[in-house]
Amino acid sequence: MRERWTQTRRSAGYLLVSLVTAVATLVALPLLVWPSKARAWAHWHRRRAGRLLGVPVPARPTPPHGEPRDGWEIRTAPATRRGLLWLPTHLLTGLPFGLAALLCLGNVFTGLWAMALWWALPAEAIPTLQGEIPVDDWATALTAAPLQVVVLAALFWWGGPPLARAHARICLRVLSLSEAQQLTQRVEVLTRTRAGALDSHAAELRRIERDLHDGVQARLVATAIRLGVARDALDEAPEGVTELMREAHEGIEEAMTELRNVLRTAYPPILADRGLDGALSALAAGCGVPTRVHVEDLGKVPAAVEAVAYFVVAEALTNTAKHGRATRAEVRVRQTGTGLSLQITDDGVGGADETLGTGLAGIRRRVLALDGDVLITSPQGGPTMIEVEVPCG
């Protein structure tokens, strides 16, 4: 019973507010046809409908940080159209539904008022029931008035909540996204969150690289130096002690070599020092095949994308030097409308195959992790071309 009473009370408030907002929509229609106003007005109604039905409603979207509002307005044109469609829909539903609730509840209160206070009113202000029956004696006040109260209260008790829910469902039906639009919106959200996650990941990699380089590696170097000095000082010591010192010294040096490899694979320090252009030039200079590097003005590129580009070029040039038997290679990097584009070519013998463990599979894994594309063209006899595009959004 308490739950039913709560539903009836909430439905009454919902329908009466819907009547008021429908009248406000009619009065302020020239103002509400403005796109931003229409979206805000529609979202407010969505939230009301969602609360009544117990349906979660997403927060009102706002332009992502740094995105021009004009472009965002264009992308959210479907939401604007739904907001504009809601204006006549609300007039056609909010007015009659709200008026029905107002007439029903208003006559309930009229019956209660007439039943209790008819005797205190002047003759010209005598209330009437159903617009026809004057309440001018106790017989009418104690029969017709209670009957009106009971009938109309029961009518709203059973009909009010379904009427409010019907209006709320119409609201959500008109203003909710279609499945295709929901999917598109979800992809946009995932794209933005992925970009944020990649930036955070890249920052964390840089922190790890810095901590390892400045902390662990520095201590290992100092220990190796001390062990080397100690081994030199123990040249005259028993053979066993000298051998142990030598093994410890060599172990420290091997650990430092492995640590440097970890640092290079986690986040190449040269990227932080020289940027992508300088890092690729260093790779070309160290390649066994003469390599030309062309890097256009890239603007701001996420650190994670820079790292992937570096590893792609490094792996491709390593394959060229080891397996391609090429006499020259070329690397081109440019910014496209959607991301970073790389093209690595050589004049070698071709025949590169991802299934043979030549490192091409590793390139594909790294690129696909950022939702990028990889195209490898390597016919027998050459040339070999690797084309990569990585989103920068």
TrEMBL record:
Domain Histidine kinase/HSP90-like ATPase: 310-391
Keywords noted in UniProt: ATP-binding, Kinase, Membrane, Nucleotide-binding, Phosphoprotein, Transferase, Transmembrane, Transmembrane helix, Two-component regulatory system
Bilayer-spanning residue ranges: 12-34, 91-118, 138-159
The EC number(s) this enzyme carries: 2.7.13.3
Catalytic reactions of this protein: ATP + protein L-histidine = ADP + protein N-phospho-L-histidine
A single MF term (Gene Ontology): kinase activity
Putative sensor domain residues: 15-171
The keyword Transmembrane is annotated on this UniProt entry: yes
Short name of one Pfam family: HATPase_c
Stretches assigned to the Signal transduction histidine kinase subgroup 3 dimerisation and phosphoacceptor domain: 204-269
Keyword Cell cycle tagged: no
Top EC class for this record: transferase
Protein known as: histidine kinase
